[in-house]
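User: Okay, second chain of the day. Same drill as before: sequence in, C-alpha cells out.
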Amino acid sequence: MPFTLHPLLPPDIPRATELYFTAFQNPHSLACWPRNHAPVRTWWETMIRTELHEPGSQWLKAVSDDGMGGMVGFCKWRRFGEGEEVGTGLPEWPEGADARLCQETFGDWAGKHGGLMGGRGHWYLEMLATDPKYQGQGAGSQLMRWGLERADQEGVEAYLEASPDAVRLYEHFGFREVARTDTWIENERVKQGVMYRNLFMIRPLKAAG
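Assistant: Same drill. C-alpha cells below.
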C-alpha cells in the first residue's frame, strides 16, 4: 500500500501519542506507561510538542494513500554531528508512570548510546511507531528509509535501540546488534514478572560505490 511522508505537526500529536501506546505492547512499555491515565498522555503530548523543533530532530508521519488520508505511523530521527555529545539527562516522569523503571532503563540506554557511538556522527532512530492495522504494509519501512538515505548521503552510521519483536525489520535494513541489556520487570501492570531484553543496533557505513 502506498504512503506519503509529511512533517509531523502540532495537530498530529494526540494521534501520534495514541499510535505509540497502540503499537508498543511489550512489557517494558506497558510497565512504564499506564495507557488510560490522563497525566501520562498529557506528559507524552507535551514531550512531543517540546521536541518537535529540537535542533537536529526530524519528526515525520506516514499518511495512507487509500483515500482515508489518515496518519498510520510516525517517527523521530535525530542527527548527531561529529563530536556531538549524546545527552544523558532525564526528565521528571509523570504521575502514574513507573518512575523507578523509567529512570533505570532510559538512563542506561542513553549512556550506552553515547558509549557505543563514541562521538561519531550518526543518525539516531529514536522512535518509530506504526498502527498495528497497517504493520507489514510498508509505512514503517518508508519512515526507516528516510533517515537511512540521509545517513548514506552523509557517509555516517545509523543507530537505534530495539525491542526483540522489531529486530528482524532492523536487520533487513542492515542494522547489527552491538550490545544488549536485560531488565527484570514486574509491577501492577506486568504482574507476572518477565525479563525484558533491549538490543542496541548500529548500521555500518555504506560501502562506497
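DSSP finds six helices and seven strands in the chain.

User: Thanks, on to the next one.
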